Amino acid sequence: MAGGGNAIRGSRVGAGPMGEAERGEAAPRQAVTYFCAREHRSVVTFSVEAQVPDSWDCPKCGLPASLDSDNPPPAPKIEPYKTCPAVGRVLPGLGDPQASLPARLYAGGLLCHSSASASHGSAGCRRAAGRG
After folding, report:
1. DSSP secondary structure string, 80-130?
2. Shortest CA distance to 63 belongs to which of 73, 54, 53, 49?
3. Per-residue pLDDT tens for 19-32?
4. Quick one: which of 122, 126, 102 has its CA closest to 114?
5. Are the C-beta atoms of 102 and 116 separated by less than 8 Å?
6. CB-based contact 58:76 (threshold 8 Å)
7. Domains of the chain from N-terminus onward
8. Counting beta carbons within 10 angstroms of the beta carbon of residue 35, is it exposed (0 to 12), middle (13 to 18) or buried (19 or more)?
9. For 80-99, what is each residue's pLDDT tens digit?
């Protein structure tokens, strides 16, 4: 099969020799190094005119990183997710501790409806309307 006369086959739109003369001058840049608590170094390039942020998220581990290599920010403390019984234990004084959490919240005035299926802002909600 003989090749057709399609000279641009396999090339992309805008492909071709393109240098500084056609694109214009590149903006002056500065390289800034950030350090995280796991001793990762992240080099981020900013424009010279841009304001350099004091902290940056490490792309390797996601921890916060700072400009100070000797004193990187500590890793944030992650609190575990609290289950309904755990929340019930930290809410003292809301009725019988053996009662279910929705019942205790309703008795303490923190929940508008005794059933979880009703929405808080419904028209029939006396507490949301300020009548209860």
Report:
1. PPPPHHHHHHTSTTSS-TTS-HHHHHHHTTS-S-SSTTS-TT-TT-TTTTT
2. 73
3. 556 667 788 999 99
4. 102
5. yes
6. no
7. 27-66 (2.20.28.270), 80-118 (no CATH)
8. buried
9. 877 777 766 666 655 565 66
